[in-house]
Design goal:
It is built from six helices and five strands. By secondary structure, it is of the alpha+beta class. The protein has a domain at 148-337: OmpA-like domain (60s Ribosomal Protein L30, Chain: A). It has a five-stranded mixed β-sheet. The longest helix is centred in the N-terminal third of the chain and has 155 residues, at 12-166. Residues 1-10 have low confidence and may be disordered.
Length: 349
Amino acid sequence: MASEATRPTVDEPEGEGYFASVSDLMVGILFVFLLMLTVFALNFQTSTEDVEALKADLEASKAELARLEALARERAEAAERARREAELAKIEAESQRRLADIERAEAERQRRLAEAERERNAELQRLLARQRQALLRALDLLDREVESRQQARQALLERMRERLRERGVIVQIDHRSGVLRLPERELRFPTRSAELGPDERQAVRLLAEVMAEVLPCFALGGPRGGCAADDQPLLETVLVEGHTDKRPLTPDRDFRDNHQLSAARALTVYRALVTDRPMLLALRNPEEQPLLGVSGYGETRPLPGALGDSERDHAVNRRIDIRFILSARTAEEIERLREEIRKVLETFP
């Protein structure tokens, strides 16, 4: 209370001044506020424009970023493709290298195989050449052996023909077949008979004599007096063969047909031979088998050039043949071997 009493009293005019000052202050503040508001508005406008510009820049940046990201992706994809292509190229190069290695290895293997094949072929050619020479030598030996034996048989036939001719018996010889042939004029049998007449008996006696002289030189088991130095046992069989003409034989009590008649005639000659010269029974072939034998062919083996029905043809075919067969080793077996060797030689280059 005391203070209110002591507080100075303000005059009315002074109050008006105070309010005037406050008004001015407020006006000033308002002016400042308005000024600041204007500045703010201006700044806000500027900021808005800046924001829009920033937004535009941001959008542009985003677009550029998207472009850069797309470009980066494209480059990354291109790089990945390039990497994959590089890997594929590397794999392809490695495959090509391995393939080249395989091809080189295969080429080397083929070269070695070819070289080995050439060596084998060369060795085979050398072997074939040696075999060919051996076969040629063997064939030459066989040829010479066969030729020598053929010549020996020819010498036998010639020796017998000459010695029979000296005794007045004329025979024919067939060197290819190894046959000494007694034609009907030298050894004639009566019709439908196997009996020998006196003249025929004498011819057979002379034949036995010559056979006893010559056959021991070409067989085993007989005396070899008068033989040549190169004579050797080479006969397999000496067959006394009977032959008739082709006119059929009417069966009777003695002979049923020409086969029986021809066999009977051959047997008659055979018996006469061994009766006159029993030593002929002792002759053996290289297999120690009896040398002499008998066969009858009837009309089945007519001679070439005597196949007709003339009396001459009939007379020629009525005969006794003495066939000298070389041993199997020198005839059939060796001839077969010769043919086999020739076939083998034909396969050589």
